[in-house]
Give the backbone structure.
Amino acid sequence: MAEEDIKSFHDLITEVHEKGLCGKCGGCVSFCSAGDLNALEIGDDDAPRFVDEERCLKCGICYLICPQMKALNPELKEAFGWKPPIGSYRSLHSARTTDERIKKVCTDGGVVTSLLAYALKKGIIQGAIVSRKIGPFARQPVIVTDPDELIEAAGSHFEESSHLEEIGRQYATYSPAIREVRNLGKSDLQRIALVGTPCQVYTVRKMQYLKVLPADTIVLTIGLFCMENFSFDDRARKRLEKSLKIRLDKVEKLNIKDDVIATLVGGEVVHLPFEAVDEIARPACMGCPDFANDYADISVGGLGSPDGYTTTLVRTVFGEKLYNGAKSQNDIEELSFRSHEEMRIHKTKAMARIIAFAKRKKERAKKYVSLDFRSDK
Ligand SMILES: Cc1cc2nc3c(=O)[nH]c(=O)nc-3n(C[C@H](O)[C@H](O)[C@H](O)COP(=O)(O)OP(=O)(O)OC[C@H]3O[C@@H](n4cnc5c(N)ncnc54)[C@H](O)[C@@H]3O)c2cc1C
Ligand code: SF4
Ligand code: SF4
Ligand code: SF4
């Protein structure tokens, strides 16, 4: 095969960057540097770029693992028994943590943190890539190996409410968890969990399918439902504050369920429709069709559950073992119902909402960008 027949970072430039679809996940750079090829780096604007084009072997792996590229979809669908419209799953629950410390800081029901804490306690994993808050609208990926660090990284609460200035004039809620994958190769950790958005879990699955090191050390993926992430500068912030009539430095907690939910200092809760915040959604997110984290071991969100509970979609056999293990140890508990019928109706409604959001997101992506280079996913 001629070299020009293989896709490379040049193709990512034309098919992703130039179309405004790069989500700045760093997956391409992670592989290129973990493989010691070092042709790419993260630039000042957080986007990947060639640092030394001469070093590019045109191996094509950055192209294949980029979440915007769907070339490996048939293989992944087969490997995971993917079924429309949101992939395969084994069970659906509304559950919450029983740990009071986690309850205080978690986003919804604290299931993510509890499952990870259980997995650490049992030696199922040695650590987890999670995202620690560094300000109201900023998170940073970090590898944690200790339950206390896990709890510290959980949730969307902020100790103080006026950190906006500390993180500069560009605010971004996206946390590039994949960038930590390249550091796994340098650590002694062999069994790691990753908490990530659909685009991140999708990239990890593609790395695993291609047997790209060190993705094999990720033995558990907990995937967040994801409608969008935000990125905005001071001008957009001021415009937004005017139209929404709230001050963003007064936002204490941010969550997304049926809409964007901002809890303000003092406890007032403001619901913002997605349309009201569309202008600060990252362009890559507007063109992204994945909502329910179809390839995770366990997918989680708030949608479909009452406040204080996490909607938990158990997808793989491994995910099921973990969920059942944590439940049997009373680390998590399920929403109780008066009858089996009531439970079935609750779960049917929750599933209907997940599917409706997944379809809505796919429709939005279709409108935003021509999906002719993507598959039917
Ligand atoms: C950007 C984003 C968008 C979301 N969109 C939706 C949505 O549209 N609908 C919906 O129902 N649910 C959405 N969720 C999921 C929801 O907000 C909760 O994270 C989920 O229900 C788990 O709650 P929990 O209490 O069990 O998790 P917790 O126990 O509180 O743990 C949360 C975990 O998520 C990690 N985390 C937090 N922020 C990020 C981030 N930006 N990137 C990667 N990891 C992160 C934390 O490190 C922690 O490990 C979204 C989450 C995020 C981060
Ligand atoms: S060496 Fe491979 S991974 Fe690195 S930029 Fe070139 S094609 Fe991409
Ligand atoms: S892998 Fe991530 S950072 Fe690289 S081009 Fe694709 S979206 Fe952008
Ligand atoms: S919407 Fe979520 S899954 Fe899609 S690109 Fe944005 S952060 Fe990733």
About this structure: DSSP finds 14 helices and 15 strands in the chain. The pocket of iron/sulfur cluster (ligand 2) is lined by residues 8-9, 31-32, 37, 39-40, 56-62 (CB under 6 Å). Confidence is low (pLDDT under 50) at residues 157-168, 371-377. The longest strand covers residues 127-135.
